[in-house]
Write a structure and sequence with these properties.
By secondary structure, the chain is α/β, with parallel strands linked by helices. Among the domains are: 128-206, no CATH class; 225-280. 23% of the residues lie in helices and 22% in strands. It is built from seven helices and eleven strands. It has helices at 10-17, 22-27, 33-38, 60-77, 97-108, 174-179, 257-264, and strands at residues 44-48, 84-88, 115-119, 126-127, 139-147, 160-168, 186-190, 208-211, 226-230, 248-253, 272-277. Strands 1, 2, 3, 4, 5, 6, 7, 8, 9, 10 and 11 form an eleven-stranded parallel β-sheet that branches. Helix 5 links the parallel strand 2 and strand 3 (115-119). Pfam families: F-box, LRR_At5g56370. InterPro entries: F-box-like_dom_sf (IPR036047), F-box_AtFBL13-like (IPR053781), F-box_dom (IPR001810), FBL60-like (IPR055294), LRR_dom_sf (IPR032675), LRR_FXL15/At3g58940/PEG3-like (IPR055411). It comes from Vigna radiata var. radiata (Mung bean).
Length: 280
C-alpha cells in the first residue's frame, strides 16, 4: 500500500499534526528520519491533564513527568513559531522555576499565536501582560491564573474570550478589557473580581454571552442570540431596549419574578428559557 501521507509536503503534515496533543505529535518522531525532526515544526503546544487519566496511574510522579515533558518539548522545538498554545494542568509542587521561566519566555515570544488556552494554578505561574496585545489572537481562555497587568488590551481579532478565576496584580477593569476586543463573538466571565468603570464600545458581533454577575451594562448584550446571566440580586432594572435576536435565555434569580417578566417582555424571538432559583 502506498504511503500517501509521507508524500505530502511538510507544511501540510505539520498542519494535520497541529490538531493532535503534543504527546501524540512527538510520538510520530519514531516513524522515520524525516519524521524525527518534523514534529518540531508543528505550530502548536497542547499539554492537557484536566481531561485525561493522568491521575489514575502514577499520581505525583505523573505530574512531575508531565512538567518535564512540557519543558523538554519547549527546549527541543527551539524558536519555531506557535499558533496554538494550550496548557492545562492541576497545581503541583513539581513545576520548577526553570520550567516556569521557559513557559513565560515562550509565551512572551509567541506574538503570532492564534489560540491561547491556559489553566495553571496561580501559585505556579504569572501570565505576561504583553499577551493582551497579541494582534493575531482569536481565542483566549484563562482559568485559575494570575496576570501581571490587564490595564491595556488590544486584541483586534479576538472572537472568543473566557475568563474564570483570573487574578491580577492591579485592579481588573472589565469594561477596559471588553473595549479592547471589538470583534468579540463569544464571551464567558465567571468568578472574576473586577469592576467596570469606563465606557464600553458596542459589541455588534457578540452572539453568545455568559456572565455570573452583571458587571457590564445590560445593553451591550442586546444583539446576542444566547445569553446566560447569573443575577442573584439586581433590583430596579430598567430596560428601554429589546433583545431582538435572543433565542436562548438562562437566568439565575433570587425569587425575583418581576425581573423575569421584565426580561421576557423584551425577548420577542425567545425559544428556550431556563430559570434557576437561588434561595440565598
Amino acid at each position: 500500500m502506498a504511503d500517501l501521507i509521507s508524500s505530502l509536503p511538510d507544511e501540510i503534515i505539520c498542519y494535520i499534526l497541529s490538531f493532535l496533543s503534543s504527546q501524540q505529535v512527538v510520538a510520530t518522531s519514531v516513524l522515520s528520519k524525516r519524521w524525527n525532526i518534523l514534529w518540531r515544526s508543528v505550530p502548536s503546544l497542547d499539554f492537557n491533564t484536566i481531561d485525561e487519566d493522568f491521575w489514575l496511574h502514577n499520581g505525583q510522579k505523573t505530574v512531575k513527568k508531565f512538567y518535564f515533558s512540557v519543558g523538554s518539548f519547549l527546549v527541543r522545538r527551539g524558536d519555531q513559531p506557535l499558533h496554538r498554545f494550550r496548557l492545562r494542568c492541576y497545581p503541583s509542587m513539581d513545576i520548577t522555576e526553570s520550567i516556569k521561566t521557559r513557559i513565560q519566555t515562550t509565551l512572551s515570544g509567541s506574538c503570532s499565536v492564534q489560540i491561547l488556552d491556559l489553566y495553571i494554578h496561580p501559585k505556579d505561574f504569572f501570565l505576561p501582560s504583553m499577551v493582551f496585545s497579541f494582534k493575531t489572537l482569536v481565542t483566549l481562555k484563562l482559568k485559575f491564573i494570575i496576570v501581571e497587568d490587564m490595564s491595556f488590551v488590544d486584541l483586534p481579532l479576538l472572537k472568543i474570550l473566557h475568563l474564570k478565576y483570573v487574578y491580577s496584580l492591579v485592579e481588573i477593569d472589565l469594561s477596559q478589557i471588553i473595549s479592547g476586543c471589538p470583534n468579540l463573538e463569544k464571551l464567558k466571565v465567571s468568578d472574576l473580581a473586577c469592576e467596570a468603570k469606563g465606557k464600553i464600545i458596542r459589541l455588534s458581533k457578540l452572539v453568545r454571552a455568559s456572565i455570573d454577575k452583571l458587571f457590564l451594562p445590560l445593553e451591550i448584550f442586546k444583539e446576542v442570540e444566547v445569553l446566560k446571566l447569573n443575577w442573584i440580586f439586581q433590583p430596579n432594572i430598567y430596560l428601554n431596549f429589546d433583545f431582538n435576536n435572543l433565542v436562548q435565555l438562562q437566568l439565575t434569580v433570587a425569587l425575583d419574578w418581576l425581573l423575569v417578566l421584565k426580561m421576557l417582555n423584551h425577548c420577542s424571538k425567545l425559544q428556550s428559557l431556563v430559570i434557576c432559583i437561588d434561595k440565598v
